[in-house]
Amino acid sequence: MAQYFLGLDSSTQSLSAILIDLDIQKVVYETSINYDQAFPHYTTQNGVLSNPDPKLVHTPPLMWAEALDLLFDQMRSDSVPLAEILAVSGSGQQHGSVYLTNKAPQIISNLNPSQTLVENLDGIFSRPTSPIWMDSSTTTECEEICTALGGLQPTTEATGSTTFERFTGPQIRKFYKTEPDAYNNTAHIGLVSSFMASLLAGRISPIDHGDGAGMNLMDIQTRDWHTNALNATAPDLTSRLPALAPAWTVVGPVSSYFTQKYALNPEARALVWSGDNPCSVIGLGLIREGMVAISLGTSDTYFGTMKQCRTDPHGEGHVFVSPTGGYMTLICFKNGSLAREQIRDAYNLNWDGFSNALQSTVPGNDGKIMLPYFEPEIVPNILDPGVRRFDLDESDAPGNCRAVVEAQMTSMRIHSEWMNVSPSAIYTTGGASENADILQIMADVQNCPVHRFEVTNSAALGAAIRAAHGFLLETGENPTWEALVSGLAEPVPNSKITPVPKTQKIYDKLIEKYATCEKEVTGR
Length: 524
Ligand code: XUL
Known about the structure:
Shape: globular
Bound molecules: D-xylulose
Helix content: 25-40%
Strand content: 15-25%
Structural class: alpha/beta
Oligomer: single chain
Low-confidence stretches: none
Radius of gyration: 23 Å
Distance between the termini: 59 Å
Largest sheet: 7 strands, mixed
Number of helices: 20
């Protein structure tokens, strides 16, 4: 018998849905609503309001709610078996915050199905727009909170990350400082994830530990609100925040608004939502310590997993709680495709020519090294961009091609060492993951097998799998993550690339030399 679970993804530009049938371990339905196209009346561009100050990036949260109505409408007209869905969960863009008045619990628990969500939510917002993860206007507040917590390392150890402009705590502090009356009028502060979960459950939802870790407000060790961080952020914050809860928490049955209006199964469980990165960890099948995903996109992103909580003393990697109950890290390297393409173009190559260059050079590149900071880099923090070469001539085209890729893989290895977990399997996604020569260097430098992974929406898929996990736990079963991701979140068959043993010594040496060059440039 079919076992349907629904995963939603409230992302920056769209609201998407994935329905899985756990019985046959397949995705059976997918759809997506693009905000700009569906709701021109909010005047968003790429899901955000334009502002003369590029540092201010907000979105009206009412639009996310309106999208929920349209999505259910769409699913009903597509004959999605809504009446048979067993549980729903979701993923939200991380860090974004939603500010509600004291009428919120009453409004949310009495949603009237003969009206729209937009009509129902009249009077619920104490702040009409939500700052989202792209907002970078809180540098002063970051410094204030970080100083109050004792500096970079204590802040990272306390909350999993040092303070970042987009993180929720600094955003709340700025709101309190610049709009004290509106802050006073705010009774509830949630994340995008918990706001959407609240609508589905018909009651204020907890914030899950994964998304909670992206706030600079949660104690990353105990998973409770961190009193000093709260005090450093804004007065009386405790009473404004919901409870924190594990990612498998059932908030309750789904709200009667959805059962009456869209014939959603009244027995269906509404789970807490999580952030898009924690959900993606499940959608990418990273269910055991040491499993890593590397996305080779415009920027390169490194998702690592660990059982124990360790934090990055340099504050470069974020630590979030994984939906498995362990920990995950997100490390973002800005000079990804950007740097590979710059080198390809500088030597007038196409990707085949780039691959030929990798094949015609040797692992370790005879000690030739490049630090590929075409743009200011996030990890390591380089504000003053510029490519630096060591024992590498700019005229050496093949040497430069190998050097840029070895630099990227080496940097990932060096800047994930604080986790103290050797990767056991790497799943790689994104444009450059099509290139087997790049993946061979990845496997050799990381000394770990690499598999290709094809994903469309790992966050929504991860949310659907989490819905299944929470549902089965509540019904007394003890589902294994292996069984849950099987068939749904697995790498491309036969795509495994194995490290070549004799390259290990060569790369150990190169990594040491690279670290020295990097120190020279960063001064750290
Ligand atoms: C993570 C981050 C983004 C958002 C939006 O720290 O800011 O990945 O979650 O996707």
